[in-house]
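Chain A, query sequence.
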Amino acid sequence: MKNSRFPAFPLSRFPAFPLSRFPAFPLSRYPLYYSPIHRQNHQNPEPRTQNPEPRTQPMLRKLPLFLYALLILYLSLKPSGPEIVSIPHIDKLQHFMAYTVFAVVAAYAVSTKRAYYKVCIAIVLFSGAIELIQPSFGRECSFFDWLANSLGVSLGMFVTALLYNQQKRLCDFLNLSLD
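Chain A, predicted structure.
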């Protein structure tokens, strides 16, 4: 009888397939060597108990994203003050830069690429919702502000991808793990 839960060879011994990078395949749950004896002993493993301590690390990683979202919300809904610099369309540049930083901060808060894409879509929808409710706060609703926000998120995603690729190359060069 073949147990499909455990592979027949030790995947963790192959450097080209580091299992620790995949959260769906935690190494602490599986034995280091996958011999038939280990498979026999693990046919009916003991039920794992849940850790009663809350996991605060993921929450702490999301805190900067939440605080930055509150800052963006406040700055977008507060009444605009007097114009200090009279450069045409400077507000579009401000929107663009703020949402570029928003997308880069979001990359720190999530752990997978799929979650990052979902968060970036949520940021674009968040900016659209802000633009729609701005008239009730005495501000102007502008499609071009939303477009600048969306382009800023796109640039933030691009910058994040570049930074990740550079980090990955450096870690590969130094034989380090990205964990």
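Confidence is low (pLDDT under 50) at residues 11-35. Residues 1-49 form one domain.
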